[in-house]
Amino acid sequence: xxxxxxxxxxxxxxxxxxxxxxxxxxxxxxxxxxxxxxxxxxxxxxxxxxxxxxxxxxxxxxxxxxxxxxxxxxxxxxxxxxxxxxxxxxxxxxxxxxxxxxxxxxxxxxxxxxxxxxxxxxxxxxxxxx
Length: 130
Fold this sequence. Notes:
This protein is α+β, with helices and mostly antiparallel strands. Helices cover 18% and strands 45% of the residues. The chain contains one helix and ten strands, in the order H-E-E-E-E-E-E-E-E-E-E. The strands form two sheets. A five-stranded mixed sheet has the order 5-6-2-1-10, with no helix packed on it. Strands 7-4-3-8-9 form a five-stranded antiparallel sheet, with no helix packed on it. The chain is globular and about 75 Å long. It starts with a helix and ends with a strand.
């Protein structure tokens, strides 16, 4: 009779241990992302458009950046934004030139976005003002 009441307890104990071990092995940091160098930011205000020009370099890496976050606005990177290891893009905050423009609000700190196995990782960057 004691063996029957002990079996569910052992089952739940083993299940809890497996769940905990899987949780601790999950990727919780972005230390595997490449180093960001020469990261600069400069504001611009021209012909009905305001925002920030962001530039940075990424070491040769398996993971390539897919976006930038500047002052809580996300801007996707395109092939035109890349020259070798140098990335430069305009993060548009406000525009009267683009009809119905709405910035992509992204409530995170400034940084560079990477896409790894269908998951976005933000590498925080302290951009230097030009």
